[in-house]
């Protein structure tokens, strides 16, 4: 298990049409550190965004894609995605409000 601080866990928000539609249900998508656990992700969201209370966290490990450039081939890096469900009385996350 990685020794991660809460500010190292969340890398960036994922802004897609599907993730924007799920915000009405208080579900937010983030790209997270590949070695982060669900409890670390929950702790990071509650510390980084004031007034939020996490109900559940779902994670997905995404394998790297095969890429080619001329005769050379390789893979892109692995990523991890987290979908965070907030409780009903929790505050909204401010990053997504202006989008």
UniProtKB/TrEMBL annotation:
Ranges annotated as spanning the membrane: none
SUBUNIT field: Part of the 50S ribosomal subunit. Contacts protein L29, and trigger factor when it is bound to the ribosome.
Name of the featured protein: Large ribosomal subunit protein uL23
Gene: rplW
GO cellular component: ribonucleoprotein complex; ribosome
Gene3D superfamilies: 3.30.70.330
InterPro entries (UniProt xref): Nucleotide-bd_a/b_plait_sf, Ribosomal_uL23-like, Ribosomal_uL23/eL15/eS24_sf
PANTHER family: 60S RIBOSOMAL PROTEIN L23A (PTHR11620)
GO MF term list: rRNA binding; structural constituent of ribosome
NCBIfam families with a match to the protein in the record: PRK05738.2-4 (NF004363)
HAMAP family named in the record: Ribosomal_uL23_B
């Amino acid at each position: 298990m990685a020794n991660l601080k809460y500010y190292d866990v969340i890398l960036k928000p994922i802004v897609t049409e599907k993730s924007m539609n799920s915000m009405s249900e208080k579900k937010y998508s983030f790209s997270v550190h590949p070695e982060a656990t669900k409890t670390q992700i929950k702790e990071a969201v509650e510390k980084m965004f004031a007034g939020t209370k996490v109900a559940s966290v779902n994670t997905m490990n995404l394998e790297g894609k095969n890429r080619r450039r001329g005769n050379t081939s390789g893979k892109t890096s692995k990523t991890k995605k987290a979908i965070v469900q907030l409780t009903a009385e929790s505050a909204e996350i401010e990053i997504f409000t202006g989008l």
